[in-house]
Design a protein that fits this description.
This protein is mostly helical. Among the domains are: about 30-110; about 510-600. Helix content is about 65%, strand content about 5%. It contains 31 helices and two strands. The protein has a two-stranded antiparallel sheet. A hairpin with a 4-residue loop joins β1 (about 270-275) and β2. The longest helix has about 40 residues, at about 5-40. The radius of gyration is 36 Å and the shape is elongated. Mean pLDDT is about 90; it is low at about 5-20.
C-alpha cells in the first residue's frame, strides 16, 4: 500500500509529465503553424497561409520561442518580411506584420533581460572564449547593458572584474553612446575616465559634444586630458569647435532624424537616459518613438545652453523641436516633463523675437506647417510691427509665411501682421489682404487644408479673426495694407450665414470709399431675412459709411429705407437705427420734408 509521500510524489511526477507533454504539444503546434504559413506563402496559396498565420496568432505564442524559430530559418524570416510588404493581399500583409511584431518583442525581451545581462557582465571575467561570447550578447543588449557595466565599475567589491569590463565597454558600439553620455555626470572620476575613453574608442560623432564639454568645464586636469585624447581619436578638428556648437549640430541631426541616431526598431518606444546623482545610477524614461528625436534635439539644445548661456541658436532650435514633438499627436508628454510642465506655446510666447524667427525660418524652409503655425501664433501674441517684420539675414520669415503652402500658416501670418498695424510699407502687403480675404470666406471643407486638421470650428475661427483684423486695419485707417482688394470678400461676408461675420464685414465696408461697399451694407440692413441683431448694426455701419463717404446709394434703396422708417410696424430699435443712417446720408431737403409731413396728423 502506498504511503502519503509516495502518493504525493506520483502526483507531482504526473503533473510535471502532463505539463511537459502540454508544453511540447504547444511547441509542436507553434512550429507547425509557422512552417505551414511560410510554405503556403511561398507557393502563393495565400488563403491557406492566412489561416495558419491566424492560428499562430490565436495560440498566443511565446515571443522568445517564435524568435528562435525565425533564427532557425533565416530564409523563412525573409519570406515573412516580404509577406508583410505584400501589396496584393492586405490581409496577408497585416497578419505577417503582427507575426513580425511578436518576433521583435521576443528579440527585445531577450536583449533587455536584467538577469541575462547581469550574467553576461560576470561572464566577461571568465575564460577568453567566454569574454567574446559575453561581448556578443552584451552588444545585442546595446544600451540596456551599460547600467550594469557601470554599476560593476563603481562597485569596489568587483574590482577584479574591472579590466575585462573596461575592455568590453567600447565593444558595445553605437547603442552605448546615449547612456554613456548621460553617465558623464558621475562624480566617480575612475568611472568617468573609462566612459570618456570608451566614447573615444566607439568613435561616433555623437559623443563629441560631451567630450568637448568635459574639456571646457571639468575641474580634473586628468579628465580634461582624457577627453582631448578621446576627441582627437574621433575628429581632431572638433577640438577647435565650442561644445555649444557641437551640441547644436547634434541637436539638428536629431531634429532631422539622422539615421545614425535612430533608436532600436524592435519596440515602439525609445529611451531617454538620465543620471540620478543621489543614487549614482543611470535611469531611463521610455518615450514614444514618434517624438524621440525631437526630445533628444531639445536635450542637446539644453546642453548647448549649459555650455554657453549666450548661444542663441539653441533656443530657436529648442522651440522648433518642442512644437515638432507636439505635432506627433501623442496625447501625453514624457513623465520627466512633470505635471506642471508648460506646453510649447507658453515657452514660445515668452521667448525673444529673434529666437522665434529662427524657429519660423526653419519651419518655412522645411515646410513644416505645425511648427510654423505655433511660432506665428506666439509672435502674434507678443510682437509688434518691428518684431514681426524682423530680418533674419536676408530674409523675413513672417513675410515668407504669407506664401506658405498650408493655408492656416498663411492666414495666421496675415492676421499677426494685420493686428500689429504696420506703418512702414513692405512689398508683400498685398498678400496680407489676399490671405485675410480668403480666410474670411473659408468653410469647413478639407481641400487644400494642409496637415493641421482643418474643420468647421477652425474655419469659423479664422473667418472671425480675419474679419476682426480687417476691421482694425480699416478703423485705424491703415495706409500700408490696402483693403480695397478684399471688397468682394467683404461684400460676400454681408451675406454669410454667420451673423458675426456679417456684422464685422459691414463694419469694415463702412470705411471703404466705394458705392458697391455702401450698397452691400444697405442691402444687409434692409434684408428681412436677417435677424435684428444683424440689421441694426448694419444700419449703424451704413451711418458710418455715409458720414465718411457721403451718400452713394441708388434712389430705390433710399426709398426702401424711407418706407422702413415711416412704417408703424417697424421694430423701434430697427426704426431708430434706420433713421440715424437716413439722416447721415444727408439727403436733399425734400426727403426730410416728406418724412416730416408724412407723419403729420393734419
Amino acid at each position: 500500500m502506498f504511503n502519503g509521500k509516495i502518493a504525493l510524489a506520483i502526483i507531482a511526477v504526473a503533473v510535471f509529465a502532463g505539463s511537459t507533454f502540454s508544453a511540447q504539444g504547444q511547441d509542436k503546434e507553434l512550429r507547425n503553424n509557422w512552417t505551414e504559413f511560410l510554405d503556403y506563402t511561398v507557393i502563393g496559396k495565400f488563403d491557406l497561409a492566412k489561416g495558419y498565420a491566424q492560428a499562430l496568432l490565436d495560440s498566443n505564442p511565446d515571443p522568445e520561442k517564435l524568435l528562435e524559430l525565425s533564427k532557425e530559418n533565416l530564409q523563412g524570416y525573409q519570406i515573412l518580411l516580404r509577406a508583410r510588404e505584400n501589396t496584393y493581399d492586405a490581409e496577408l500583409a497585416d497578419l505577417s506584420g503582427k507575426v513580425v511584431a511578436i518576433i521583435e518583442q521576443g528579440r527585445f525581451i531577450r536583449r533587455s533581460s536584467p538577469a541575462i545581462i547581469a550574467e553576461e557582465v560576470r561572464r566577461l571575467s571568465g575564460t577568453e572564449r567566454g569574454w567574446y561570447i559575453a561581448v556578443k550578447r552584451l552588444r545585442d543588449a546595446g544600451e540596456y547593458a551599460i547600467p550594469f557595466m557601470l554599476d560593476a565599475l563603481a562597485d569596489t567589491t568587483r574590482e577584479n572584474e574591472w579590466p575585462d569590463i573596461v575592455r568590453a565597454l567600447p565593444q558595445i558600439g553605437r547603442g552605448a553612446i546615449r547612456p554613456l553620455a548621460a553617465a558623464m555626470q558621475t562624480d566617480n572620476v575612475t568611472v568617468k575616465s573609462e566612459i570618456i575613453t570608451a566614447l573615444g574608442k566607439i568613435g561616433y560623432p555623437q559623443g563629441q559634444p560631451y567630450l568637448k564639454y568635459v574639456i571646457e568645464n571639468d575641474e580634473s586636469e586628468d579628465l580634461r586630458n582624457d577627453a582631448r585624447k578621446a576627441l582627437s581619436r574621433i575628429d581632431p578638428d572638433s577640438l577647435q569647435v565650442p561644445a555649444a556648437e557641437l551640441f547644436y549640430q547634434l541637436g539638428e541631426k536629431y531634429y532631422y532624424q539622422a539615421e545614425s541616431l535612430a533608436p532600436s526598431e524592435d519596440v515602439s518606444f525609445a529611451n531617454v537616459w538620465f543620471w540620478d546623482a543621489d543614487a549614482g545610477k543611470l535611469t531611463r524614461e521610455e518615450v514614444d518613438d514618434d517624438y524621440f528625436n525631437e526630445l533628444m534635439a531639445m536635450r542637446c539644445c539644453e546642453w548647448a545652453l549649459r555650455a554657453d548661456a549666450g548661444y542663441g541658436p539653441a533656443i530657436g532650435l529648442w522651440i522648433a523641436s518642442f512644437f515638432k514633438a507636439e505635432s506627433a499627436g501623442v496625447e501625453k508628454m514624457p513623465n520627466y516633463f512633470g505635471a506642471r510642465h508648460a506646453d510649447a506655446l507658453v515657452y514660445a510666447t515668452t521667448a525673444g523675437v529673434e529666437y522665434l524667427h529662427q524657429a519660423l525660418a526653419r519651419a518655412v524652409t522645411d515646410k513644416n506647417a505645425y511648427v510654423a503655425l505655433g511660432v506665428i501664433e506666439a509672435l502674434g501674441t507678443t510682437a509688434g510691427e518691428k518684431s514681426l517684420l524682423y530680418k533674419l539675414g536676408p530674409s523675413q520669415p513672417l513675410l515668407q509665411s504669407l506664401s506658405f503652402p498650408d493655408r492656416m500658416v498663411r492666414y495666421s501670418a496675415a492676421i499677426a501682421i494685420g493686428m500689429a498695424g504696420p506703418t512702414e510699407p513692405f512689398a508683400e502687403s498685398p498678400l496680407v489682404t489676399t490671405n485675410l480675404a480668403e480666410a474670411l470666406g473659408q468653410g469647413p471643407d478639407a481641400e487644400g487644408a494642409g496637415g493641421n486638421g482643418w474643420n468647421a470650428e477652425i474655419a469659423d475661427s479664422y473667418a472671425l479673426r480675419a474679419a476682426e483684423t480687417m476691421l482694425k486695419l480699416a478703423s485705424t485707417r491703415n495706409k500700408v495694407v490696402d483693403l480695397s482688394a478684399a471688397q468682394n470678400a467683404l461684400q460676400a461676408g454681408t451675406k454669410d450665414k454667420r451673423s458675426e461675420i456679417q456684422v464685422l464685414s459691414g463694419q469694415t465696408l463702412a470705411y471703404l470709399d466705394s458705392p458697391g461697399a455702401q450698397r452691400a451694407i444697405a442691402d444687409m440692413a434692409l434684408d428681412t431675412g436677417n435677424a435684428a441683431d444683424v440689421r441694426v448694426p448694419a444700419f449703424d455701419s451704413l451711418a458710418t459709411s455715409a458720414k465718411l463717404n457721403a451718400n452713394m446709394l441708388p434712389e430705390e434703396t433710399v426709398d426702401a429705407i424711407y418706407e422702413l422708417i415711416s412704417s408703424d410696424d417697424t421694430d423701434p430699435a430697427l426704426r431708430s437705427a434706420a433713421a440715424a443712417a437716413y439722416g447721415a446720408l444727408n439727403l436733399p431737403s425734400r426727403k426730410a420734408k416728406d418724412l416730416i409731413l408724412d407723419q403729420a396728423k393734419s
